[in-house]
Design a protein that fits this description.
Two copies of one chain form a homodimer.
Chain A (H helix, E strand, L loop, with lengths): L13 E6 L7 H14 L3 E7 L1 H9 L8 E5 L10 H7 L4 H10 L5 E4 L3 H12 L9 E7 L6 E5 L9 H19 L5 E5 L10 H17 L2 E6 L11 E3 L2 H26 L3 H9 L1 H11 L7 E4 L4 E4 L6 H16 L2 H22 L13
Parallel strand pairs in A: 1-2, 1-4, 2-3, 4-11, 6-9, 7-8, 7-9
Antiparallel strand pairs in A: 5-6, 5-10, 10-11
Chain lengths: ~375, ~375
Amino acid sequence: MAEPTDGGERPGSVVISVDAMGGDRGPATVVAGIAASADKNPEIRFIVHGPEPELRRLIGRRKGLAERCDIRHAAGVVTMHDKPSQVIRSAQDTSMWSAIESVRAGEATVAVSCGNTGALMALSMLRLRKLPGVNRPAIACLWPSRNPQGFNVVLDCGADIRADAPDLLQYAMMGASYARNGLGVERPRVGLLNVGTEEHKGRGELKLAHELIEGAAADGGFDYVGFVEGGDIMGARVDVIVTDGFTGNIALKTGEGTAKLVGDFLKEAFENSVMSKFAALLAMSSLKRLQKRIDPRRVNGGLFLGLNGTVVKSHGSADETGISAAIKLAFQLARAGFQDRLAARVAQAAPAASASLASDAPTGTAPTGLAS
Amino acid sequence: MAEPTDGGERPGSVVISVDAMGGDRGPATVVAGIAASADKNPEIRFIVHGPEPELRRLIGRRKGLAERCDIRHAAGVVTMHDKPSQVIRSAQDTSMWSAIESVRAGEATVAVSCGNTGALMALSMLRLRKLPGVNRPAIACLWPSRNPQGFNVVLDCGADIRADAPDLLQYAMMGASYARNGLGVERPRVGLLNVGTEEHKGRGELKLAHELIEGAAADGGFDYVGFVEGGDIMGARVDVIVTDGFTGNIALKTGEGTAKLVGDFLKEAFENSVMSKFAALLAMSSLKRLQKRIDPRRVNGGLFLGLNGTVVKSHGSADETGISAAIKLAFQLARAGFQDRLAARVAQAAPAASASLASDAPTGTAPTGLAS
């Protein structure tokens, strides 16, 4: 992982903006997650958004936390049922809007929210605006994998149901940058999700994206391995899997559902007899380690990519551990200077894509000098 | 499940055509699977396709098997690397071609092959032809689920990367018919895979398919529950999940990969210490039951739907248990008169789709009188 070079370890040197409302478990859980992160990382300061009296009470209860939190009053809450189209017209008084505003104003480096995904993306696009050169922002998710870093990056997981070839190229660049700065993979291997690994297979936009990404890999500082399949998402062949938001969302939910099904079947198996219950007791610590490896709370951060600012979306049902994991991810990215590095990568990719589309030849003789 | 009405229980009354070649493990494994099925089901006769001397030797070794098998000599083999476009020009001498030919000629009710999927679909389309009214045939897979029948039907799992709204309607009809005749679900619940359950979400063709399937449900003898998500594929909300072959293939491989990852992590967890190894020993029978519930070999039959004849595609890596599971599925479908019932359903759906497309009104006043 890129190390901080500007004294990033000073107490309070990294500011994270946290939306305390909108999650399924309410602000007490969010504050508990903030407290857990604060204990572990003295470098973090927080700007916390929501109804001031309630937040002051919740934060006041935790020893030493009040000194590290600015509370920003916001009376309104974006609920899970609000439609994005309505939210962008009437959400000025909400904690979600306020949390994004802190990033927009440059007071905080990353915003964290466990609210409504569609509304969060809509507000983020409205207030932060897309990075120059980005057509469709993406949501990147971390996926438990067989790779040494423990996770793979999958994007887009549902920001936009469509993606054209140049969008997929940008997802490749942004995903590689995330793997580098968020997971510490120096030279990420990128694959394009398809129904087979042969080059003649798949939809037209995928064949074009295949050429674009291949041409941009060298300058992008990543290796392109070509088409990959659903079974590679959790495998060790690649670190970054690129796909459109429709396919990515369905793959994500299918994977989550399958892991949960196997876990539930496992529990039933152990509750089956006295002997198996005893066995479960004996194997407790091993089973807990297994649970930790596939625990969705540990990978609890969908990252919004392609905006003028970094936003981490936590699961709506996130508990204290989940919130804390999302804040940790936000902190790592802030410390690594991720947003600036990403912007530089995207700026570099945009002309490469148009040149490649125009000439059909690999581009990229311009040195960038950026280790983003 | 629909019960046979025509003396289906007579020894030798159901004929299954088996391609003995093309699987990763060779004809000895296929013959072992045939022998296992023959032991359990005295009603089945087999037509076995491949190099005669080798098959005669392999079958001759199994007591009583030779009397129940017709061997059809075919010297050629379709390999996993052959491209479908080449195969349809030059595969007349192969065991795969011959296996399909037995269904085409009416000698066998269902064909089973563990060869190259693309080639098998191409040859099946070439020789059996599409059912009248079917635009795109589909591959239906069984998925371990929380439903009482233990499995859900997912289609298309990869026959065609595209599907328009009328194709998705036919998948719904065919999938419901499969759930009824193959899984014994009297009134299947059908869902359309999307990135959210709200009606305004998703691609245009999905919104149109949503209306078409809703209008056809009553006459089709199934319940339509609307849009479902990736997490419903293994859930208890629906019995049949309808999607295009691109999405279905990626979901299938993501689910398989996730189950395998969790299984491998579980093994590692149990090998972690002496105590956990001992625990694994104690829990052996429970763990075996778990393995059986999620064993892909037990659901080892991709079913080709929409042709003038039924073809079961077994996993290329299928072992004896896997081959036997595929033959069992073929036998159940043959005994239930599945092919005729399916054809009747499709014939009924075709005019419904065009009428609905033309008038945008729900159709279906014509009684069908068919319990297919």
